[in-house]
Amino acid sequence: MKPKEPANLTEERVSRILAKVREHDFRLTPQRLAIIRILAESKDHPSADEIYQEVRALFPTTSVATVYKTIALLKELNEVLELGFPDGSNRYDGNRPYPHPHAICTKCRKIMDPKISNVEELSEEMKKKTGYRFSFHRLDFFGLCPECQKKS
Ligand code: ZN
Ligand code: MN
What we know:
Order of helices and strands: HHHHEEEEHEH
Number of strands: 5
CATH superfamily of the largest domain: Winged helix-like DNA-binding domain superfamily/Winged helix DNA-binding domain
Low-confidence stretches: none
Radius of gyration: 17 Å
CATH architecture of the largest domain: Orthogonal Bundle
Distance between the termini: 23 Å
Helix content: 40-55%
Bound molecules: zinc ion, manganese (II) ion
CATH class of the largest domain: Mainly Alpha
């Protein structure tokens, strides 16, 4: 069983994304809606391929291009966060489409969203010390998750 967001939070996310999609006059096909739902429900930062497999179970004719196009659309609307990796195994967060710290398991690739208290301060300090005006940050912590620690 995959970890999922509570149903009410999923519905909130889905309605918010749909409102934005409509605002921009993007066509909403059943496949696109399914992809949006999968992203809003998931807690485990799925890859495009995982999303593809899930949509295909519902709509067998869906192409992988549809998945990528929908993700690109949601990125444009700032409604999905893309976690890019150099090997191309990008993952997506449809629940928190803004920068936040991630804990990434280098073995099983499990990605978690812990609530960390000092990110604002860190961001302020970065600004003060560099004079940059930041629009985005990425804070990834790599290592072994508790399950993989037990196995090793
Ligand atoms: Zn792990
Ligand atoms: Mn996340």
